[in-house]
């Protein structure tokens, strides 16, 4: 019920702005519509909600403040939307296991690095119980649980397109600073689309290998590089092959579970359900 009232309010303000907004705001909206096209109402209404929230938080119900916030948002989005219409095709491998565990994915070019990390960890079957950081030519960008002195900025505050990546460029995601899983990411192509691309447009295109074994990097290496030594080692530990996951990668299954698994892992980082 509350949601319906909010959307009705936003729709009413949207109609009022189009008809009665200041000349300066109307001019910005016209410029924005040229950039955003058919998707301009969606982004304009999103900006209205942002401006409403700021006014409510500051208890300042002034048209000048509201229009000023909305105008700043639209000016920012006019710069961002061209990048939001791009996708990047990446090849992602587990370092030192490149031949055995890898993925090819299509992702939005304009996405926060923390969201990218959640997706990478998801498609490689990580549980999200450890810290992570991106290692790039522009610096290190890690999860919010990392100490500030370890980073140049938090991954949640940096977008992929801000790295100014081009075809052939590489960067890495370092996961679990004790077990040291490193995912190397290579840009294979940058695609242009007529519409804005969102997180729902992410697609796993191909891959091989089930994924990583949480907290068992050395065992995973042994499994792929020396199978006999692996079998003997786990027998010494009182384990057998049934205690390990050896499922084959299936692209349809992976895509079908991708968004739900991503939401679960993201929740773990955002709400500290797990001890990092």
UniProtKB/TrEMBL annotation:
Fetch the Pfam families from UniProt. Answer: PRiA4_ORF3
Which superkingdom heads the taxonomic lineage of this protein's source?
A: Bacteria
Segments spanning the bilayer are none
Q: What are the residue boundaries of the Plasmid pRiA4b Orf3-like domain, all occurrences included?
A: 89-215
Q: What is this protein called?
A: Plasmid pRiA4b Orf3-like domain-containing protein
- Organism expressing this protein natively: Massilimicrobiota timonensis
């Amino acid at each position: 019920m509350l949601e319906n009232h909010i959307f009705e309010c936003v729709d009413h303000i949207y109609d009022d702005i189009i008809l009665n907004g200041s000349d300066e705001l109307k001019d910005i909206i016209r410029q924005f519509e040229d950039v955003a096209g058919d998707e301009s109402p969606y982004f304009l209404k999103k900006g209205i909600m942002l401006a409403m929230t700021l006014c409510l938080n500051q208890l300042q119900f002034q048209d000048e403040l509201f229009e000023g916030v909305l105008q700043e948002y639209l000016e920012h989005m006019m710069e961002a939307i061209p990048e939001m219409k791009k996708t990047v095709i990446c090849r992602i491998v587990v370092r030192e296991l490149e031949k055995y565990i890898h993925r090819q994915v299509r992702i939005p070019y304009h996405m926060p690095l923390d969201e990218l990390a959640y997706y990478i960890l998801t498609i490689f079957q990580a549980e999200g119980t450890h810290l992570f950081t991106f290692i790039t030519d522009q610096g290190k960008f890690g999860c919010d649980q990392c100490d500030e002195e370890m980073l140049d900025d938090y991954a949640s505050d940096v977008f992929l397109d801000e790295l100014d990546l081009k075809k052939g460029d590489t960067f890495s995601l370092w996961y679990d600073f004790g077990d040291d899983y490193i995912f190397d990411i290579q840009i294979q192509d940058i695609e242009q689309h007529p519409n804005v691309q969102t997180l729902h447009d992410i697609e796993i295109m191909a891959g091989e290998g089930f994924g990583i074994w949480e907290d068992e990097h050395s065992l995973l290496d042994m499994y792929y590089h020396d199978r006999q030594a692996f079998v003997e080692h786990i027998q010494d530990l009182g384990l057998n092959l049934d205690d390990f996951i050896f499922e084959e990668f299936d692209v349809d299954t992976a895509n079908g579970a991708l968004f739900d698994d991503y939401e679960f892992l993201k929740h773990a980082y955002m709400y500290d359900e797990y001890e990092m």
